[in-house]
Amino acid sequence: MIETVHSRSRISETSIPFSEFRDLEASALDGIVTSIKDRMGPSLKILGHHYQQDEVIRHADLTGDSLKLSQLAGQDQACRAIVFCGVHFMAETADILSRPEVAVYLPDRAAGCSMADMADLDSVETAWSELAVHLDVDQITPVTYINSSAALKSFCGRHGGIVCTSSNARRVLDWAFSRRPRVLFFPDQHLGRNTARAMGVPLESMALWDPHQAMGGNDPATLHDRRVLLWKGHCSVHQMFKPSHLDQFRRLYPDGKVLVHPECMMEVVDAADLVGSTESIIQTIEHAPAGSSWGIGTELHLVNRLASRHPDKTIHFLSPMVCMCATMYRIDPPHLAWCLVNLERGSPVNRIQVDPETANWAKVALDRMLELR
Ligand code: SF4
């Protein structure tokens, strides 16, 4: 995880060290978490992202995707502390959207997002400067997926840009194209490409921007024809699904349907029956008829949870490999208990606080997205 000056997490010198929690029995850890939740009552909200492991999610007051969680927690008037069982950018978003009296904590500060780390502010500012030599950057809208640092959301806020999620990416790109002819989309090339193609933008009108090469690896002369510049980033979890996995599923379940997340590569999305965000995947399975069969291409913990919640349907994880979000998996019961004990005793650990200047501009970009709903 890249930790920048734009967002800091700290451990107080008086905190009880994590080593005192690491080897505790699961039942002892559950008891610690449950009793602190009882004592702190509505002033504490534990948020659990859909990809979180069951041992943690069972303690969550609210579950959902990152934006839904941040918005719900931000509305709760009694809440004073949010413990976000997700990854770093999610805790930053919760800090930006919550009321000033609410403090946000991440139980393990090493819980980052490999995709978010693929686009840092320096690289994006370098790209913007390089683009400015050959194109009018006032005619480019920077669009960042919500899976990005607060610093990048802030960059978008300052440059007339916007944030998107996997469920509203199309609406956001519509908004962007109604204002300016070009988009720089980061950090996930797949969500950008899949969304733009679904809107009718041909592949020839897109370019991949590799931040490790001058001009992103592009010949400046060709950029004039490109409407969508796609940052060369990806989700290490969703990138593991391959078209051959769909073939294997369809051989096993000829009547089954394949449902994948738009962070999957274009070839997988093209071959799927349905594409949707985590919330949309959950809703689709909930409303599917009993006896139906589904091959699902998203994070393993969510797929396993759907399978146990819907025993009347066949839920098949699409890949033969284990595709789980390893960084989110760092938030485990020992870290949750450690975070809560120190929070209750007044020596909090891992508070995530975005500096006011970054938060202000990031909120501008988030608000532009929220106004589109
Ligand atoms: S699943 Fe992928 S995009 Fe989501 S938090 Fe994990 S690494 Fe990041």
**In what range is the share of β-strand residues?**
15-25%
The name of the CATH superfamily of the largest domain reads NadA-like
| CATH architecture level-2 label of the largest domain | 3-Layer(aba) Sandwich
Ligand kinds: iron/sulfur cluster
Distance between the termini: 31 Å
- CATH class assignment of the largest domain: Alpha Beta
Mean pLDDT, rounded to whole units?
94
Low-confidence stretches: 1-5
Strands, total number: 15
Please outline the major beta sheet: 5 strands, parallel
Estimated radius of gyration: 21 Å
Number of helices: 16
Could you name the CATH topology of the largest domain? Answer: Rossmann fold
Characterization of the model:
With 373 residues, this protein is of the alpha/beta class. It folds into 3 domains: 7-113 and 327-354, NadA-like (Rossmann fold), CATH 3.40.50.10800; 116-234, Rossmann fold, CATH 3.40.50.10800; 238-317, 3-Layer(aba) Sandwich (Rossmann fold), CATH 3.40.50.10800. Helix content is 42%, strand content 16%. It has 16 helices and 15 strands. The chain has helices spanning 19-22, 26-40, 54-57, 66-75, 88-97, 121-134, 150-158, 169-179, 189-198, 220-223, 243-252, 266-271, 278-287, 300-309, 333-344, 356-371; strands spanning 7-8, 44-49, 62-64, 81-85, 103-105, 140-145, 162-164, 182-186, 206-209, 228-231, 257-260, 274-275, 293-297, 314-317, 353-354. The structure holds iron/sulfur cluster (SF4). Iron/sulfur cluster is lined by residues 51, 87, 113-115, 147, 235-237, 299, 325, 327-328.
